[in-house]
Amino acid sequence: MNLILLTKSNTFILGWITALFGYVMEFIYNISSSIFGIENVGLAIILFTVVVTLLMIPLTYNQQKSMKINKLIQPEIQAIQNKYKNKTDQKSQIRMQAETQAVYDKYGTSMTGGCLTSLITLPIMLGLYRVIMNMPAYINSFKVYFLNIASQIQLQEGFAGKLAELAASNNLKNADLTQVNKLVDLMYQFNGEEWAQLQQIFPNLSEVIVENSTKIMEIMSFGPINLMESPGMKISWAILIPILAGASQWLSTKMMDMGNKDGKNAQDDPTAQTMKTMNTIFPLMSVFFCFTFPCYIGIYWVANSVFRVITQFFINKKVNNTDVNDLVRQNIEKKNKKRARKGLPPLSEKTVEKNIEELERKYGMAGGYSAPAQTRMAASPARNMVDAGKQVNNTEYYNNRAAKPGSMAAKAQMVKEYNEKNTKK
User: What is the mean pLDDT of the chain?
Assistant: First the structure.
């Protein structure tokens, strides 16, 4: 399966990302060539992946911290969801939203805390693929070998029509081959057989084609593997790429899941179930794509997964050795600093109840409503911390409240239960 290439990307979002990564890739390639005397796309991709993986460590670390805190939050969130499970009226939905937000505020995090990191990494990943899928557009010292051939071909009469069959077989049927960059895009997809066909089409250019294509294929080889070809279902060294891609991707996604020791909670935890599904789907996707895409994509995929496993090992070790109370305290401090810059008061019980009252006024809900005691924040930062080892049974707490929400009896009961729980601690 060949890919449709469009030279350099100039889209609003990906254009500047691919340009930046293109400069990095060209710098790495030139360093490898000038200092070590090695011109090799596979090596450049691996070194490039190391650099990008190191740059993404802070994002990965923040994501792991969010996952650790979310595991602590999930029982409370699930208890609230169970409490309003069969209530679809607007008032109940607003109250569920308010209680849920109060829980996130208590831990100094947000509903989108873990998603933001993933959204940031998405354009980075797409930018990387664009650079790797069209290396000649970003590495001038590599592109020159294609230009040596292209410049001679464009001097031949009717060259575009003669290349129509090769262009169609590489999904470039309607490409304007009179543009040198489009011609380079086409040749970048050639394997050994197609270079031989090009010699037959332009026999008078056989010498220049052989000289430059030999160098191109040398640069595009990684050991016994030709990076220009797809592994397919044939027996060759290239089949190692999808196998390694699947294995390394499985290990990478497995390490992303910090694990839930409690099997029962793991079954009820949507995050744990999502990670379990990812551990199955992502490796299979890696195997499929690496079987069908050219091997230079597979080299990147394997290198990316392997280096993520290495960095993830150290990140997990650091996160696991960090007290969750310290993570919560740091989150609250950061959130309060952001609120201070906006002229807002620090998070406290009063701010949580104020948010709830504003929601009630917004939706015309009469009567006061107080968040459950377990979701309300104490004024003292020390009391905002949650001891995971002494965590109360939140489901039982939320589901067993008999008093009508918002009533004096409910408020009295909440104060009583809150005091009892803190006394036991």
Answer: 76
